[in-house]
Amino acid sequence: MELQLKNLTKKYKEKVAVNHVNTTFTPGIYGLLGANGAGKSTLMRMICDVLAPTEGEITVNGNRIVSMGEEYRRMLGYLPQNFGYYPDYSALEFMRYIAALKGIPRLSANRQVRQLMELVSLSDVANNKIKTYSGGMKQRLGIAQTLLGNPKILILDEPTAGLDPKERVRFRNIIAEFAKEKIVILSTHIVSDIEYISDYTLLMKNGRLILTGKTQDLALSLEGKVWKIQIPEKQLEQVNDRYTVVNIHREEAGMIDVRVVSDEKPSVDAIMKKATLEDLYLFHFRENQNDVGR
């Protein structure tokens, strides 16, 4: 299967939210990484055919999705950033309702619902009303309803936003388990989600894809540019103005260890460190350092 974006653009009057994006997806997990406002959600909504592009087109195996209609929607599983649900429904009622909307026959729907509730570890509370669920439980229910009908393309928009670290790990494991032979596109600004789960990473900034490649290889572009230096705390502002500061660790006697990205060795005693995806992210999004997940 091949999902292709060709010259995809979305404009809102004078604002260009997505700017001439060209890329191809084959089965695997793709991390779409960028700061808030980079254009990720707009791109995801166009892929899901809920937002029409201003220019360009999207094809599946050479067929334009606007011409495929219901055939494309059956291939698609979409989890928006804030998915809708009926709070007074139980999870079981909600799942059966979504299955009916997707046109899944009742016997098949009942089997899938049982399997998916087990997969997301909600079987024991399946009869509880959704309004009693924690944020993490609601997100797990969200991914379960997305997986109904065995979609071949999964679009997940900021799926771990607001989850605690334990729930984020659980969520990533669910996706990894179900992703075989599917195209999974995971949009996030949390770097660790991409590092641990994605096969490929697409870095998006100001509506453009500025870097794409295998997740394990992308950080190599910063090889030889990541350093650790130790400085007096009073010099931190000066270092922060001059370099991309990735991490700070305070030591004793007013000294701090600072991890920086720099084309040149920042000081005589600087120690070169192995580059990571988080280093790469901060190198390109220095003004958005507070968005980085830990």
Keywords for this structure?
single chain, 294 residues, alpha/beta, Rossmann fold, 6-stranded mixed sheet, 4-stranded antiparallel sheet, 14 strands, 33% helix, 29% strand, disordered C terminus
Structure, explained:
The structure is a single chain. The protein is of the alpha/beta class. 33% of the residues lie in helices and 29% in strands. The protein is built from eleven helices and 14 strands. The strands form three sheets. A six-stranded mixed beta sheet has the order 6-7-8-3-9-10, with helices on both faces. It has a four-stranded antiparallel beta sheet with strand order 2-1-4-5. The longest helix has 14 residues, at 106-119. It starts with a strand and ends in a 10-residue tail after the last helix. The model is unreliable at 288-294 (pLDDT under 50).
Task: Please describe the topology of this protein.
Blueprint: E1 3-12, E2 15-25, E3 28-33, H1 40-47, E4 55-60, E5 63-64, H2 65-68, H3 70-75, E6 76-79, H4 91-101, H5 106-119, H6 135-147, E7 153-157, H7 165-178, E8 183-188, H8 191-197, E9 200-205, E10 208-214, H9 215-218, E11 226-232, H10 236-242, E12 244-250, E13 255-261, E14 271-272, H11 277-284
Parallel strand pairs: 3-8, 3-9, 6-7, 7-8
Antiparallel strand pairs: 1-2, 1-4, 4-5, 9-10, 11-13, 11-14, 12-13
